[in-house]
Design brief:
It is a single chain. The chain is mainly beta and 192 residues long. Helix content is 0%, strand content 40%. It contains no helices and 13 strands. Strand 6 and strand 7 form a beta hairpin. It starts with 7 loop residues before the first strand and ends with a strand.
Length: 192
């Protein structure tokens, strides 16, 4: 694939820090394609202190999987490469986390993961369930067995005035589907 496989930036008020998402042919340590996400993160401005990218699987389903997807108790992971300047000072770090939404648009946000490193790929993950994750968030009535959307949130630390204008990269969203064997955690969006 040489497209973004349906991934888009959130445009709601308060979530506008991700300004563009596009397929790129290569990134550091990745020569097979991934997504480049343009980020205008400004902790001091409400519209730009958080951003999200996501895919609505109703319109861009992973191959051979029915929608909605049952992700209850299943690990969802995404590879991330942050660039210089994205980690904020230790006392007020920037963070990212995965999220998903069910067919009624009720949300599950996984645990916060502080951004502490640049220049190499690392994984961020969540396991949707009916229990709120530690340092995460969940709408009342969220149904992890009826998922329509998955995505990534990136944000400045609370009270931060940190600014970043640049790009970070994402690749290889994976999760286990019912048709997979127990040990399989298949890549659903590879961006290759």
């Amino acid at each position: 694939s040489t497209d973004n496989e349906g991934w888009a930036c959130q445009t709601y008020a308060g979530l506008k820090a991700c300004t563009n998402v596009a397929w790129v042919a290569s990134a550091p340590s990745n020569s097979t394609g991934c997504l480049g996400v343009d980020l205008h993160l400004d902790g001091a401005i409400d519209d730009f202190n958080e951003g999200e990218i996501m895919v609505d699987m109703r319109y861009y389903p992973p191959s051979m999987i029915g929608i909605p997807v049952d992700l209850k108790g299943k690990r969802v992971s995404l590879s991330i490469l942050c660039t210089n300047g994205l980690p904020a000072p230790e006392g007020n770090p920037n963070y990212l986390r995965l999220f998903c939404k069910d067919e009624n648009w009720k949300s599950f946000y996984g645990s916060l993961q502080h951004i502490t490193t640049t220049g190499h790929w690392f994984s961020v993950s969540m396991t949707p369930d009916t229990n709120m994750p530690q340092y995460g968030w969940m709408d009342s009535g969220f149904d992890p067995t009826r998922i329509h959307m998955v995505g990534l949130q990136i944000a400045a630390g609370g009270g931060s005035t940190w600014k970043f204008d640049g790009r970070f990269f994402v690749d290889g969203l994976s999760f286990q589907a019912d048709a997979d064997s127990v040990d399989t955690n298949s890549i659903r969006y590879s961006f290759e």
